Amino acid sequence: MARITMDHIVKKYGDGFPAVNDVSIDVADGEFMILVGPSGCGKSTLLRMIVGLEDITSGDMIIGDRRVNDLAPRERNLAMVFQNYALYPHLTVYENIAFPLRLAKMPDDEVDRLVRDAADTLELNEHLERKPGNLSGGQRQRVAMGRAIVRQADAFLFDEPLSNLDAKLRGQMRTEIARLQKRLGITTVYVTHDQTEAMTLGDRVAVLKRGLLQQLATPRELYENPGNLFVAGFIGSPPMNFLPATVEGTKVQLPFGSVDIPADRAERAAGRGLLIAGIRPEHFEDASLAAADGRTGSTFRAKVEVVEWLGNETYAYIPFESPDEVKAQLLQLEKDLDGEALRTQLVVSLDGGSRIAEGEEAEIWVDGSRMHLFDPATGENLTVDHERAGRIPGAEVAAGAPTEG
Amino acid sequence: MNRTSNRVGLVVGCILILIWCLLPVAWIISLSFKSEASITNGNPGFFPGDGTGAGWDNYKAVWDNEQFRRAIFNSIGISLIATLLSVIVATLAAYAIARLEFRGKKLVLTIALAIAMFPVVSLIGPLFDMWRATGLYDTWPGLIIPYMSFTLPLAIWTLSAFFREIPWEMEQAAQVDGATSWQAFRKVIVPLAAPGVFTAAILTFFFAWNDFVFGISLTSTENARPIPASLSFFVGADPFNRPASLLAAGAVIATIPIIVIVLIFQRKIVAGLTSGAVKG
């Protein structure tokens, strides 16, 4: 067990491109830390620097109280589960799990005890004599985890371990990993591009974009207080809606009408001209249903283009036009998120009982108090609650707060 | 209908090719069981007939020949040592080429290929002179060295292709599990590359065993003369009347080791050994 401290870690490749750029993350002892971001954001590189498979260009990597920058992977005492499992095909499941113990020259009876323990935990007992080639994807995944838990490693590192499994198995293994980590109480760093895994597994989540740490916070903080447009768009499914907005007093002017927001939020965004408003789909509702519940907020009328009824909820799609200034920023954001949305549209999550039909002009209720306002030039969230947003590296500097390190 | 005719065509084609390839072999075997006199008199029948058959006499005669036994011993020894050294060196070299980035990697590969393309005959003269000057002439190392230098390029190319197929993650996983680079190589990479190693070994052994040009030019006595060269010196009692049946028997005996080696190695060349390593 150990804490992992990444201090101003930089990874530059031969061509000078910084794959990881000045990232500082502190993983507490026993914490489940998620590194998340779209492909090419440097999350896997960062993980491989922790385990020692990539050199660190500058910065300090500290595990426990040892600086490990110059240690070989085998001297770091970490266990890793690879994306493609990397099982040894010429060895049986038993020998695969025993491999690290054999390398440590452990006596046979001790090896046997530990391997059977691990196999028990992962329910691999009946497969111990088989070769990895004869196992299913989920079983291989468990063998890879067995190899990791069998020895007393200081930390677990997972590199997108579930991305090769089908959706159902992925859900099961996700729960399994969470349970295992809680039981063993071992420091874990988990890389994923799947935001469901990030939200459900992590004690804290580090969101990365193009080698830069965007925000480091608990899943709830990320969801409710995203530090910038990127985090807001990345976390949540369906993603947050972004609309062009101007603030006048405590009213925000949106393409569909104006919405009331709390005074303190309006104040922070006042006098900034054209902004981007971010509203999550579930903060909309069919106005008739919202009124019945007596919820307060604003309403507007808009023509619903497409309706997707899922039983428990309904997604309604409402197209809108946005000014070029905002459009450019949103297109860039879409690119950053690996997305391919072609049109600007509002995704609205309504109650399953809503009777709004396609092509109909509907009255939609919106909860203005949960709205975020972003600066279109920098992407910074103007309405973020810094108390409950974890760490946002750029914002600390901007606000003059002391940077960590 | 179409399918059955395809099948028939396939079978007929295979039989034709087999006959074409195996007829000389069958003929040599047939000759080796005929008596010397019947061949000299002209006896074209395939099966040794009445009075022309020699039973195992030819084989006994060949085997009793001291010169022949020495040659067999030389061939086996030289070929095995050349194969072993060549495979060890090629494995290490191929691993470096497949995994490391170093200056001159392209150059090494190109030169290796150039050596493989070099005509063997043009090297005989210089080698003959050099070997005489250095005392390697008519010794085992005098043959092992040229065999290695001509088989290494092919072995390196074959093996580096195999190593490239093995996912990087295998070694990385081993290293994270606590292995040194050498342990990762020995315990994970070499077992996975086994089919490649055995392929390279078979190719090297073939080359060394079948070589005639080096064998006849760089040796002068039974000290190091390998079997193909020795067979050409196998003239028997009458130099103007070559003992065809004895030669045939000698040739058959000379092919036995290679068949044995191929059968042993072939079992090791199991395709798809790496299946299950990674999600495929």
UniProtKB/TrEMBL annotation, chain A:
EC category name: hydrolase
CDD domains: ABC_MalK_N
GO cellular component, one term: ATP-binding cassette (ABC) transporter complex, substrate-binding subunit-containing
Superkingdom to which the source organism belongs: Bacteria
Keyword annotations: ATP-binding, Cell membrane, Hydrolase, Membrane, Nucleotide-binding, Translocase, Transport
Any GO molecular function: ABC-type transporter activity
Keyword field contains ATP-binding: yes
NCBIfam families listed in its UniProt record: PRK11650.1 (NF008653)
Protein name per its UniProtKB record: Maltose/maltodextrin transport ATP-binding protein MalK
Organism name: Nocardioides simplex (Arthrobacter simplex)
Automatic annotation (TrEMBL), chain B:
Topology within the bilayer: Multi-pass membrane protein
Transmembrane segments: 7-29, 72-95, 107-128, 140-163, 188-209, 244-265
SUPFAM superfamilies documented for this protein: MetI-like
Keyword Transmembrane: yes
Record's protein name: Carbohydrate ABC transporter permease
GO annotation, cellular component aspect: plasma membrane
Entry keywords, A to Z: Cell membrane, Membrane, Transmembrane, Transmembrane helix, Transport
InterPro entries: BP-dep_ABC_trans_perm, MetI-like, MetI-like_sf
Organism: Nocardioides simplex
Single GO biological process annotation from the record: transmembrane transport
Domain ABC transmembrane type-1 intervals: 72-265
Xref: Pfam families: BPD_transp_1 (PF00528)
Origin: domain of life: Bacteria
Gene3D superfamilies according to UniProt: MetI-like
Family: Belongs to the binding-protein-dependent transport system permease family.
Top-level taxonomy: Bacteria, Bacillati, Actinomycetota, Actinomycetes, Propionibacteriales
Keyword field contains Transmembrane helix: yes
Subcellular compartments: Cell membrane
